[in-house]
Amino acid sequence: MQSMAASITNAPSAVNCPSYVGLRAPQRTFNLCVPQHATKSFPPRLFVVRASDSEFEAAVVAGKVPSAPPVPPKPAAPVGTPVVPSLPLHRRPRRNRKSPALRSAFQETSISPANFVYPLFIHEGEEDTPIGAMPGCYRLGWRHGLVQEVAKARDVGVNSIVLFPKIPDALKSPTGDEAYNENGLVPRTIRLLKDKYPDLVIYTDVALDPYSSDGHDGIVREDGVIMNDETVHQLCKQAVAQAQAGADVVSPSDMMDGRVGALRAALDAEGFQHVSIMSYTAKYASSFYGPFREALDSNPRFGDKKTYQMNPANYREALTEMREDESEGADILLVKPGLPYLDIIRLLRDNSPLPIAAYQVSGEYAMIKAAGALKMIDEEKVMMESLMCLRRAGADILLTYSALQAARCLCGEKR
C-alpha cells in the first residue's frame, strides 16, 4: 500500500490562546502516516490540542484565574424597612425551607397512590346512582360501573378497594342473615373483580347494619340492647363467606367485644389463615358519618350507636381497644374518623408495631367538596393537605373517597 508522509507543523496554532489564560500554543511537529486513498475520500481535518488539567491548575496557582459571573448584589429591602442588627441565632430553621429543592429534600412525610384504599358503594342495579351528600360518589352497578371505576383507579396506582353494599330492603332482617349469603351482592362482586383483576386487593366490611332491618351493627333485643356474642356469631359467618369469595382483608367495623379473636378462629378453621383482619379498633360514635348512611340507606331505625361505638371525648380508651385487638390477632388497626382524631392515630402509632389505617369518612369528604364548590377553599390543595396530615399523624394506609382524585393529582393529571 502506498502512503505518503503528512507533516503538520504548529498544528495547535488553531487553538484560541487567549481563552487559555497564560498558555502558549506549543511548537510541535506531528508526523502522521495517512493512506493515499484516504486523501482522496476525505477533506482535510483540523486537529486541536487542548491544555491538560495540570496546565490549567498551574495557571490558577500563578494567579491567572478564569473569569466567572460576578457575585450577585444583595436584594434591596422595601423603603422604610428598619435597620436592625442581626439576631444572635445559632440555628435558623428557615434555612432548610428556603427553596423548593431543599423543602423536597427534607420532607419527612410522603404520600403515594399505594397508600390509598378506595371505598366503593355497590348496588344491584345496572345504573350508577349519584349520592347527593357525597358529590362525585355513586352507588355503582356491580357488573359494569364498579369494574370501570376500579380500572380508573388502577390506572393511577390505586390497587386496593373496600366494598360497601346497598342491600334491598326486602332482604334485610333483624338478624342480618343476608350478610353471609354466599351468592349475595358482596360475594358475587368479589368473585367478579378477582376474575377480572386477580391482583386487586379487596377489603370488605364486616358488620350487620347494611343487612339489618333495624339499621344497627348487631342484633337488637326487644328492649333495644345490642346483643354482643350473638352478633359476633353472625359476623364470623359473614367473614367466612367473604373469604370464600376471595376477599384479601376482612374489616370488622361493628365494635362488638371479642369479634377479632372470634373472626380469626373462624377464618383459620375454614383454611383462610392467609386472610387478614383490619379491625376498626377506635371507631367513634361520630356525627361525621351522616352522608355514608344516606349512601347505604342504613340509618338506625331507632336510637344511636353509642353503646358500642366509642365516646368522642375518650382518648385512653383507644389503648384498651388496641391491646385487645392486638392480642386477638388483628393485622391492621384502624381509626375512624380520620382528621378530627389525629391524636388517636398518633396514640396507636406510638404504642403498636402494627400497620395503622385511618378512615377519612363521608362527612370529612363532603365538607371539603362543599367548601370547594363554594370557592371558599382550594379543594385540591385542601384535599391533599388533609391526606398528608393523616399520614403525618402515623397512618400507613388511608381509606378515602378522594382516592382516585388524589392519585390523579399525584400522577400529575388534571381531570
TrEMBL record:
CDD domains: ALAD_PBGS_aspartate_rich. Pathway: Porphyrin-containing compound metabolism; protoporphyrin-IX biosynthesis; coproporphyrinogen-III from 5-aminolevulinate: step 1/4. It catalyses: 2 5-aminolevulinate = porphobilinogen + 2 H2O + H(+). Its main location: plastid. One of its GO terms (biological process) is heme biosynthetic process. It is an enzyme of class 4 (lyase). Its cofactor is Mg(2+). Its EC number is 4.2.1.24. Residues 89-100 have a biased composition (Basic residues). It comes from the Eukaryota. InterPro entries: ALAD, ALAD_AS, Aldolase_TIM. Belongs to the ALAD family. Homooctamer. Catalyzes an early step in the biosynthesis of tetrapyrroles. Binds two molecules of 5-aminolevulinate per subunit, each at a distinct site, and catalyzes their condensation to form porphobilinogen. PANTHER family: DELTA-AMINOLEVULINIC ACID DEHYDRATASE. This is Delta-aminolevulinic acid dehydratase. It comes from Phaseolus angularis. The lineage of its organism: Eukaryota, Viridiplantae, Streptophyta, Embryophyta, Tracheophyta.
